[in-house]
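Objective 1b. Sequence-to-structure analysis of TonB dependent receptor.
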Amino acid sequence: MALFEQKWMRARSWTVPALLLAWASQAAAQSEPPQDDGAGVPEPSLAQDAANGVPESPPAQDTAAASDTAQTPDVAAAPEAPLAAPDVAAAPEPPLAAPADAPTSERLVLEPSPERVEKKFESVVVGTSEARTSGSIHVLKPAQLERFERDDPAAILQTVPGVYSRGEDGFGLRPNVGLRGVNPDRAKKVTLLEDGILFGPAPYSAPAAYYFPLATRMQSIRVLKGPSAIQQGPQTVGGSVEFITRDIPASETAWLDVAGGEYLYGKAHGVFGASTERAGFLLEGVHLRSDGFKALDTVGGDTGFTRNEWMAKGRYQLVPEGPVRQTLQLKLGYSDEDSNETYLGLSDADFAAAPLRRYVASALDHMKWHRTQVVLSHELEAGGLAVTTSVYRQDLSRAWRKVNRFRGASIASVLADPTSARNAIYYGVLTGELDTASAQDALLIGPNDRTYVSQGLQSIARWTTNTGSLSHNLELGARFHYDRIRRLHTEDAFLMQGGQLVRTSEPTYTTADNKDATHAVALHATDAIGWGPLVLTPGVRLEIIRSESSNRLTGAESHGALEVLMPGMGVYGALTRELGLFAGAYRGFSPPAPGQPDAVLPEKSINYEAGARWTRRGERLEAVGFFNDYSNLTDICTFSSGCLNDDLDRQTDAGKAYIYGLEVFGEKTFRPGGGVTFPVSLSYTFTRTRLREDFQSADPQFGNVRAGDELPYVPRHQLYATAGVETAWGGLALSAFYVDAMRERAGQGEAPPGELTDALLTFDVNASWHFSRWAQLYLSARNILDEQAIVSRRPYGARPNAPRTVIVGVKLGI
C-alpha cells in the first residue's frame, strides 16, 4: 500500500463488509499500545529481531543484497527487474508499495522517520521475519527466477530442499510435485495458491492439479513446510506452494520479453501498467509454444504445445488517507492450452535405442482446455490491523483425447514385456508394424471431458500488538469454499491399418458420467509471540467439509461429512545475532475425495521438524530434520498413475507409515568489489520412507504391499547447486541438478527390472548481456550435456526428460 499524507478522508459509500471491517479496526485502535516515546518500539516483531541479534534488513542502496534477503523487490521497478543489472552500486531504491492483494507471506514494516514513514518488505511467516520463523520456508525471489529463465514449474520448485517431482512430458505442463515424501502424482497432496487464492481446478472434490500457472509470469514463489503449513489448506501433510504474481507498478512501465530456440520454442511476454495517486492497472500476457522434441512414428507431425495466459489487475484506493485506509482491487485472468500430449511411453528397449521416439498409436492424442479467473479484493488498514477480504471464482473446461487401452490388454503390461508371445501382437499394433487382427487388439481412444468450478469468499486479518513484555503478531483466517467437477469420459474403438488409426463403426461408449461437489469452511488462527530471544508460534486450523457425489451411469448418490481440527506449535530461539534453533510439530491432513465408501478415512499424520538456521545479509545456511508419522496414509487412483476406468478415483487407505529425512540449504553472495558479485547456493535432501502395514491397492504404484516397503517416486538423495558471476553489464550462471533413482512401485530391497527410474545429473547455463539501460540479451541452455534418462513409466511406458535445448531471447523495457 503506497504511502499517503496523514489526513482523514471519509469514504463516499460503504458496503456491509466495509462497515464491519471499520468497526473491527476501531476496536483494534482502541486497544493499541501508546505511541513510541523512545523507550518502546512501534513494530514489536522487528524490534524484537533487532534486540535479539537478528540481522537487520539490507540497506536500500544495495540492490544485490536486497534481492537476497527481501522476499519482494521494489514493485515500482518490478516490471523492469529483468533488465536491471545486479550492480552493487546501483541507485537507491524508492519506497516500496504494498500490493492490495498481498499474500500471507508479506507484511509491511513501519520505520519511523523525522519527516515521513517509509515502508519496506520483510518476508514473514505468521508475523515473524523469514530469519526467525519457527517453520521451514523458502522464497524464490525475482533474481533467482530470472537467473535461468526456466518455464517448467517442477524444475523451479526442485531447487528447494524437500520438494520432489515425477517427470512426465518434459515441459512441465502438468507437474507432479510432492513435498517431504507425499505422493507427487498431479501435486494432489500439496496446497497450491496464487496470490493467496487456491488455484487448483477443484481443490477439495478433485485435487489433481491439471492446471498450473505459467511460472515465467511469477514475481516470486513461496514454499511452506513444517508448522506453518496449517496456515494453508486443505492439504497440510507436506505443505503449500504459493505463486506471487506481479504487482501494479507505481509509475508507467512497459516491457517485452521475446525468445526463440530449438524445437521451434517461442516465448512472447509483455507487461504494461501505470498508476495515479488513487488508481492503477496492470496488463500482462504470455504466449509460450514448442513443436515438441518427440518424433512421431511414420506420420510425423507436431508433438508440442501452445499456452496463453492473460492477467489484468486494477486497483482503486477508496480511502487513501487517515486512520482507516481502504483499497479495492480486481484481478482477471484467462488461460488456454492446445497440446499434442499423450500418456503413451516406450518399452525399455525402444527407449534405449531412441528415447525421443513416440509410437504412432498416440497420433490422435490431444489436450485442449481454457480457464477463466476473477478475484475481487478489499483491503482495510487501521493502525496495527490489516484485513483483506476476497471473493473469487475460477472455471476450467478441458478435454483430453488419448489412447487409453486395448480391449483385451493393458498397455502398461504390454510395454513391460513386449516380446512375449501374447504381447508381441499388441506391441506391433502400438508401433504400427502390425494391423489390427481382432476385436481384442482394437485400441480404445477417447476424450476425458471435464468441467470444474472453484469459488469462494475468504478473509485474512492480521493484528500486531503488545501485552506487557510480549509482542504478538496474530493472524485469523476464514474461508467458505465451493468446488465441483463434472466428468464425461467416452471411448471409441480404432483399428491400426497400414500404420494409421481408423475409427470403427462401433458406437461411442461412455465410461464415466458423474459429478462431485464439496462445500468447505476453513478457519485458522496463529500467533507469533515474541519474548526476548524466543518466538513461540501456536496455531490451529479447522476444516468443516460436506461433499456429495452422483453417478449418472449407475444412479448412485452419496454424501460425506467431515470435521478435522489441526493444531500446531513452533518455537524459535536466537542463540546469537546470526544463529538460531527452531522446532515444531503439527497435525497433517488430506481430505478424502467425494463418493468414497463410508469406511474410507482421511489422511492424517503428526509431523515433526527441528533445525538450525544461520543468517546474515545475503547469506543463509539451514539444516532441518523432519519426521512424518502417519496414522493413515491414503492414495487415490488416477489415470496419470496408471489406473483404469473401474478403479478411477477410488481411494486406498494404506495405514501407518513413516517418512523422515534431512534438508540442507545454503546460499551466499560473494562481493569482492568493483561491482562484481558471485552468487552461489546449494540444496540437498535425504529421504527415507517405510509403509508399516500390509494392504492391497488397485493403483499400479502400490499393488500388494507388505510392511516395510518403501514408497514409490521418492528419491533417497537429491541435490541442486548453482554458481554465477554478475556485473552491471551482465552475468553468467551454471546450475547442476542430481536426482537419485526412484522406485516406481512400493517395495523393499533391490527393485525388479523395469520398476526403477534412472538416476539423472543435468547442467543448465544462462548468460545475459545488458547492452543498454533498457535492453538485455540472454542465452539459456538447458541440459547442456544432453543427458537422457527414464524419469517415469507412469502410466504407460518409459518417459524421457527434456533433451538439450538452447534458447536466445531479448528483453526491452521503458
